[in-house]
Amino acid sequence: MSVSLHGDLAAAHLTALGVRPGGVLIVHASLRAVGPVDGGARTVLDALRGVLGPAGTVVVPTFTPENSDTSPHYRGLARGLDAGAREALRASIPPFDRATSAAPSMGRLAETVRTAPGAERSGHPQTSFAAIGPAARTLLAGHRPDCHLGEDSPLARLYEADARILMLGTGFGTCTAFHLGEYRVPDPPRRRYRCVVTRDGLRQWWEYEDIALDDGDFGALGAAFADAADDGAVRTGRVGSAPCRLVRLTAAVDFAAAWFPAHRPAPG
């Protein structure tokens, strides 16, 4: 019979994993993997903030692939529809709003951070981040709308802050920080993206060019990184029932930037 995780035990597990006061954490969480938690996502966030202390900051991805017709999410919904139904689907997509747009595909903890009193959110219409803590505004400032996850995104600010990645029941396949490595290879491939925004009070489609993001090999990349990582770059443990990793973000990004050219085919 499973026992519900409570706040003090969650905090003890996080401390044992290596979370320390004053740090910056970007968190990817599967609360289903964690198991029953008294108080749910709010308890997990409170435990994270309690261990980090008043000087620490929690960051989460609050991506909104739902507002784009170039995302895998949309392509999945549109598969098999005729032209009329596809156009109706596109017409139903609401524009991104930094204050109100939910991030349903990012999980309960991300939504709890996004809606917490005092939380900040970056303004990218597809790949925003939310954060709470004293460094939140600095980390999220200047997220250029035509730069998903590169040098003008919160990932680069997290790199500069020597942040840690907390994988709470998730694997390397969803390690967003690896995308920053994609921007740091020579001449990365680019593509067009399209999403819905509000301009001058009107709903509009907006198209822009950015790096061709690809997480299809992140599982293999993560396994190679974990095997090669120096002591302390990857720590493992459990929070509740979930296997977890605490990863130094700079090490992950640097490894990815070196790994991609050797393991991805050159653009044709």
What is the gist of this entry?
By secondary structure, this protein is an alpha+beta fold. It has helices spanning 7-17, 31-34, 40-52, 72-78, 83-91, 108-114, 136-140, 154-160, 178-183, 218-228, 249-263, and strands spanning 24-29, 57-61, 120-121, 129-132, 164-168, 190-199, 202-211, 234-239, 242-248.
Describe this structure in words.
- This protein is of the alpha+beta class.
- The protein has one domain.
- Helices cover 35% and strands 21% of the residues.
- It has 11 helices and 9 strands.
- It has helices spanning 7-17, 31-34, 40-52, 72-78, 83-91, 108-114, 136-140, 154-160, 178-183, 218-228, 249-263, and strands spanning 24-29, 57-61, 120-121, 129-132, 164-168, 190-199, 202-211, 234-239, 242-248.
- The chain has a 7-stranded mixed β-sheet.
- Strand 8 and strand 9 form a beta hairpin.
- The protein is globular and about 55 Å long.
- The N and C termini lie far apart (55 Å).
- The model has no long low-confidence stretch (mean pLDDT 95).
Secondary structure: elements and pairs:
Elements (H helix, E strand, L loop, with lengths): L6 H11 L6 E6 L1 H4 L5 H13 L4 E5 L10 H7 L4 H9 L16 H7 L5 E2 L7 E4 L3 H5 L13 H7 L3 E5 L9 H6 L6 E10 L2 E10 L6 H11 L5 E6 L2 E7 H15 L5
Parallel strand pairs: 1-2, 1-5
Antiparallel strand pairs: 2-4, 3-4, 5-9, 6-7, 8-9
Helix pairs in contact: 1-3, 3-6
Strand elements, count: 9
Shape by Cα distribution = globular
The fraction of residues in strands falls at: 15-25%
Q: Oligomeric form of this entry? A: single chain
Sheet with the most strands: spatial strand order: 3-4-2-1-5-9-8
Total DSSP helices: 11
Largest sheet report: 7 strands, mixed
Percent of residues in helices comes to: 25-40%
Q: Which residues form runs of ≥5 with pLDDT under 50?
A: none
The overall pLDDT, averaged over residues, is 95
Radius of gyration: 19 Å
Q: How would you classify the helix and strand content by structural class?
A: alpha+beta
**Run of helices and strands:** HEHHEHHHEEHHEHEEHEEH
Q: Report how far the terminal alpha carbons are from each other.
A: 55 Å
Kindly give the count of domains: 1
